[in-house]
Backbone:
């Protein structure tokens, strides 16, 4: 799988605090962001799937 980049804009203070915490934990910022993205996808895919199933169940009644 090829890697791709993602460029985002955030407030300077948010960025600096995030990078500071990553350094304190000896973790690359990119690793933390990828972890967050995976967790976000997992959590929200399940929510969306549940919502779709609820809609189907209501249609059957």
Residues:
């Amino acid at each position: 799988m090829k890697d791709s980049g993602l460029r985002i804009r955030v407030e300077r203070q948010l960025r600096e605090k995030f990078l500071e915490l990553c350094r304190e934990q000896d973790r690359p910022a990119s690793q933390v962001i990828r972890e967050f993205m995976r967790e976000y996808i997992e959590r929200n895919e399940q929510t969306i799937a549940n919502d779709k199933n609820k809609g189907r169940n209501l249609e059957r009644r």
In short: The chain has a mean pLDDT of 88. Residues 30-61 form one domain.
